Amino acid sequence: MRLKVDNMSCQHCVNAVTRALRALDPAAEVTVDLASGEVRADGHFDAEAAIAALAEADYPATLLAAAG
């Protein structure tokens, strides 16, 4: 899935977002594009769970598109 994630501005943010998503699935593939604020996440979790995990980490997110 592709997500638009707010509040990302540095490598610490990239790491925090990656950690939040990998907490749902440690084997998830997470790619963060800091410049665009987009995250691609492929793992065993749904968009609602991913958005909730990111919100809890103070990174509000919205779904852009499903992976594929």
In brief, what are we looking at here?
This protein has two helices and four strands; from the N terminus they run E-H-E-E-H-E.
- CATH architecture, by name, is 2-Layer Sandwich
Order of the strands making up the biggest sheet? 2-3-1-4
Biggest sheet overview:
4 strands, antiparallel
Number of helices, where a helix is a run of at least 4 consecutive DSSP H or I residues: 2
> Which word captures the global form?
globular
Which structural class is indicated by helix and strand composition? alpha+beta
Ends apart, CA distance between termini: 8 Å
Q: pLDDT under 50 segments (min length 5)?
A: none
Provide the residue-averaged pLDDT. 94
Rg, rounded, reads 10 Å
What CATH first level would be assigned?
Alpha Beta
Number of domains: 1
Helix content: 25-40%
The count of strands amounts to 4
Residue share in β-strands: 25-35%
Question: Layout of helices and strands, plus pairs?
Answer:
Elements: E1 2-5, H1 11-22, E2 29-33, E3 38-42, H2 47-56, E4 61-65
Antiparallel strand pairs: 1-3, 1-4, 2-3
Task: Considering the chains and any ligands shown, give keywords for the structure.
Alpha-Beta Plaits; 2 helices; 4 strands; four-stranded antiparallel β-sheet; alpha+beta; 32% helix; 68 residues
